[in-house]
Each structure stands twice: as structure tokens, then as C-alpha cells.
Amino acid sequence: MLQFLRESKKCDLVGLGGALATAVIQVVHVALYASIGEPRSLLVMLLLGAVFLLFALFVWRARLPALWVGAAAACVVLHMCSNIAGLLADLTYAAQGAVAVLCLFGGLALQIRERARPRLALVALVALLMAAAVGLSAWLGSVAAVNAAAGRAQRELWAVPDAYDDAACPEPGRVEELVYETKAYATDGRPLTKRALVYLPYGYTEEEEYDILYLLHGTGDGERYWLAENPQNKTMLDNLIYYGDISPLIVVTPTWYESDDYTWDASVCDPLTESFNEEFRSDLLPAVEGKYSTYAADLTAEGIAASRAHRAFAGLSRGAVTTYRSGLCGSLDYVGWFGAFSGCSTDAAYWAERAASAAFGDLPVYYLYNTSGTFDFTLRGHVRDFDALLAAEPRLVLDKNCSMDVFPMRYHSMGSWHLALYNFLQKIFR
């Protein structure tokens, strides 16, 4: 080893140092994901760590420090997907990116100075191309398997079948805007006029009763996010109903903001996740179900509670937190089905104080569906809180009336939430 170090050029030693640093960083990264206790995310991180390490070894042996630019770019993307400003999150991608940048510029400068010629460049290039081809083939193969699967809707992890996403439905539903009056329950109680979008299935008629889903957006968005700004969700919803995979239902997309004061400040947003319960019960639900035909026999508390088996509440990101706090823990007597996509922030103690209280303690949870992505910054906290809830609440039985899906290669974005909605729609009202 000492002889090897003496005979190596400095640019080679930079590459070796980069490979060793990569090994240490990836071991730490994999250990962090192992601590979550979620096997699918751990498998993805093991594979990703192996790719980073093999890449670093190839760059070192091929004496091609310029290739570190690819690792640096990948780390920027992965860090943006896996972290968010203001949260104490996993910083291993930032560390890996710093190593890549140092090896890139340091290795190139020393290589030019020493006039060192790269060796095994062809091997490095072929190996990288093969790795990329294998990864792409696995992804495309998984998507193809979804589209070729027997039957129609499949509760899978990789993609929504093309028949639901890419083809316009011959019998589309319609989306209306509903205006209703409410209050700023989290702050000064001032009167507010708010809007929600309402999806009505094809052939909607007042002569029939419909299940209903209240579907919330995340921080920084509004009532138009699910159905207007991301119209693929409506197309999918139309097709799931058209092909008979789900029964016709009404979907309401309100905003949990009190007005157009979008903010990332937790001190402003967090109180809204709890106070939305008051708006939901007192104003939004009566406005919606007083106009549209649902299973609620009347708008009394008794009439609404009697129809809870036909009412669902779900959301993404902070909307998922609102689902836990205002839905599960605030309106369990009104709602029986719940979906939390990329968010929870509700521990077992919070649950015990509210959802396990005397008022709600005997009410069944028909289904609690949770999702996140392997690169989602909410994954650790969501899995931790969900596991604690399972341990504390006998009404929840894993894979019977609750579950946690982790989507490979997905992060905190509509790509993950679109899959979550696809799966959730097939689990509710059964």
C-alpha cells in the first residue's frame, strides 16, 4: 500500500480519496434509511449507494475526474428531492455533492499539471452506459408490466396504466366551483368567502346518492391544485369510473388556507391544519352536501354521522397533516375513510388525546391509507408516526384497514401523489 501511494500521481490520489469518501457517505446514508425500518426505501438506497461507489471507483481507475460532474449534478437533484429548506433532513447528498465538486476540480487541475493520461476510460464509459441501460430497462419494464396486466386497475407502485392517464374518457365528469361562507377559525374569526372545486361524475343526478371525498392540497397551493392545475387526476378519475373500477363519486377540493396568504411558515400553517376541522364541520360540509346529493339524510349532526361510511377525507403534504389532525382526530364521527399522502406529523399521544377520546373511541376506522416516496423528505417522520400509531391503536390493523405504500424513485411531487390517489380511490367505499 505504501509503495502504491508513493508511485501514484497526485491526481490518482484525489480519485482514491473521492472513492473512499463516497464509501463512507453511502454507508452512513444506507444506515440512516435502515433506521426507518421500511424495506422498500432501504433497497432503493442500497442500490443507489452501490451505483455511487462503483461510479467513484470507475472514475478513479479510469483517471477521468471530469466524470465527477455527473455525480455532482445527480446530487443536486437528489438533495432537492429529499430535503426542504428549514427542516433538519438527511444531508448526505449535499456531502456527496461536495466530494464530487472537490474531486472534479482538484483532479482536473492535477491531471493537467502532471500531464497524466487516463487509463481504462473505455471500460468506465461502457460500465456507466450499461448501468444506465439496466436502470432504464427496469423502469420501462415495470411500467410495461402495469399496462399489460390482466384486468384494468392494478394497485401497483410504478405507474398508472396508460388507459387511465393518456386516453380522454368518452364519458367525462364535470368540475364546478362552489362558493361558501366561513370564518378565520385559526386567527381572529373574521368572516371569509371561500371557494372549492367539486367534481361530479358523468350522469350525476339528484335522484341518486353518491359517496364523497374531500381532497386537500399542500403548502403553497390552493383548491385548484388537484383537478385544474393537474388535470391528469380528473382524467384518471373519469376513466376509473368509466371502466367500472370504482363507483361514481363526488370529489371536493377545498383549500385549508384562510385566504390567499400562502406561506411556508410553520407557525402560520400548523394552526390551520387543526382549525380546518371547524370549517369542515360547520361550513364546508353543510355547503357541499346541502347542494349535492350524498348519503347524508339531512344536515344535522346525527344525519351526517349516520352517513360516515360514505365519506372520505384525504390530502397531500400539509393536507395530509390536516387529514390526520382535522379528519381522523377531529371528525372521526363524520368520516370513515382517510388518506395521507406524504405527511403525518401526528404522534400517538396526539391521537390518543383526540381520536381515542370518549367521543370517538368506539368508532371504527374503515381504512387509513398512507403513502410516501423513497426520496420524499417526509418519509422518515411519516413511517415513524405511523408505526407508533399502529402500536398504540388496536382499531388499526396493518394490511387490513390501514397500510403504508412507499413508491420507488418518487419524491415530494405530483408524480407520487397521482399514484397515491389512484390507489386510494380503489381502497375506499368497499
How does this structure look, described?
The protein is of the alpha/beta class and 430 residues long. Helices cover 50% and strands 13% of the residues. It has 15 helices and 8 strands. The protein has helices spanning 2-7, 10-34, 39-62, 68-82, 92-114, 121-148, 162-165, 225-229, 232-242, 266-289, 301-306, 318-328, 348-354, 379-392, 414-425, and strands at residues 174-183, 191-200, 211-216, 249-253, 311-316, 337-341, 367-373, 402-407. It has an 8-stranded mixed sheet with strand order 1-2-4-3-5-6-7-8, sandwiched between helices. A hairpin with a 7-residue loop joins strand 1 (174-183) and strand 2. Helix 9 runs parallel beside helix 15. The protein is elongated, with a radius of gyration of 25 Å. The model is unreliable at 1-8 and 85-89 (pLDDT under 50).
SSE topology sketch:
Blueprint: H1 2-7, H2 10-34, H3 39-62, H4 68-82, H5 92-114, H6 121-148, H7 162-165, E1 174-183, E2 191-200, E3 211-216, H8 225-229, H9 232-242, E4 249-253, H10 266-289, H11 301-306, E5 311-316, H12 318-328, E6 337-341, H13 348-354, E7 367-373, H14 379-392, E8 402-407, H15 414-425
Parallel strand pairs: 3-4, 3-5, 5-6, 6-7, 7-8
Antiparallel strand pairs: 1-2, 2-4
Helix pairs in contact: 2-3, 2-5, 3-6, 4-5, 9-15, 10-12
Order of helices and strands: HHHHHHHEEEHHEHHEHEHEHEH
Total of DSSP H or I helical runs spanning 4+ residues: 15
The biggest sheet, with number of strands, parallel, antiparallel or mixed sense and barrel status, is: 8 strands, mixed
- Strand composition percent: 5-15%
User: Residue share in helices?
Assistant: 40-55%
Q: State the distance separating the first and last CA atoms.
A: 66 Å
Mean pLDDT: 86
Structure summary, number of beta strands: 8
The largest beta-sheet arranges its strands as 1-2-4-3-5-6-7-8
Uncertain stretches: 1-8, 85-89
Structural class: alpha/beta
Radius of gyration, taken over Cα atoms and rounded to an integer in Å: 25 Å
Shape: elongated
